[in-house]
């Protein structure tokens, strides 16, 4: 953008608490939040169970069978306590513990509450459920699931009913998004406190299905600065591009896109179209091998030859964009010609 130009989208930096820009924190931060909640007497597992039960009731009809698969840790405790909540609301709920009895105090309390609420403990699933809760492993998993866990995961992946993963699909690394061995292929994931990077990258999007966040009403003052953010724009962003009636394309900045060898103009076109869609006033494409006189979908894009290579410093006009060769002196994205000496641009292409 040239000096003095108006920012393209002044609204693009949104506060962390909005759905548009949800913060991502490290495992250490999440564990610290859990510790603070314990010290404050805040029942996070109870809140998670309530969020799970509410989500389940949006997915099934009363009377349809529900199965809670519970591991030995607190992720299994979440599943068992949610099963107790659902049973108390009149649902038919079974619980299956394929990895053995609960191993943490919170999970043991949840197990007792599930039995007291009328949840049926089964040694193997009696029928295919309409919905299954995946509470085998949580965000602390750092190894490949063993044979018993993979057998349960394979069974779960084979059902036709809804598969709701709790926090992360079991077997998925919550931080890298990698699957080692086996992992639940969820139709939906309800994650707690904050988004996990593993749900957003690598194998995560394929394993997690639709991802929803339950923040569990943590006080905002407890959170440190986020380590990253999950940007999730609305399907229709036009309401955020509202502009004054007395405005023109020169008021909203310029974007230069350089690239596109023979037969490879697609990436440059997609990048330029995205710039237009997100508010840039003028967009110029510099192509290595021009193949189009006009973009038929976005004729307002300006197509040009890319700057020619030269040992001289790169043009200030193209410096922030990838570039390549041209047969004539280029214009910058706002239409000003580059100097004859400044024609070299580098292309950071992987």
From TrEMBL:
Stated family: In the C-terminal section; belongs to the NnrD/CARKD family. Belongs to the NnrE/AIBP family.
Signal sequence residues: none
Biological function: Catalyzes the epimerization of the S- and R-forms of NAD(P)HX, a damaged form of NAD(P)H that is a result of enzymatic or heat-dependent hydration. This is a prerequisite for the S-specific NAD(P)H-hydrate dehydratase to allow the repair of both epimers of NAD(P)HX.
EC number: 5.1.99.6
Keyword Transmembrane: no
Residue ranges of every copy of the YjeF C-terminal domain listed in the record: 232-350
Cofactor note: Binds 1 potassium ion per subunit.
Entry protein name: NAD(P)H-hydrate epimerase
Binding site for K(+): 75, 134, 170
Family matches, as NCBIfam families: yjeF_nterm
GO molecular function terms noted in the UniProt entry: ADP-dependent NAD(P)H-hydrate dehydratase activity; metal ion binding; NAD(P)HX epimerase activity; nucleotide binding
Region annotated Disordered, chain positions: 1-20, 306-326
Species the sequence originates in: Microvirgula aerodenitrificans
One Pfam family of this chain: YjeF_N
Catalytic activity: (6R)-NADPHX = (6S)-NADPHX; (6S)-NADPHX + ADP = AMP + phosphate + NADPH + H(+); (6S)-NADHX + ADP = AMP + phosphate + NADH + H(+); (6R)-NADHX = (6S)-NADHX
Residues where (6S)-NADPHX binds: 74-78, 138-144, 167
Cofactor(s) essential for the protein: K(+)
Keyword Nucleotide-binding: yes
Domain YjeF N-terminal positions: 26-224
Xref: InterPro entries: CARKD, Ribokinase-like, YjeF_N_dom, YjeF_N_dom_sf
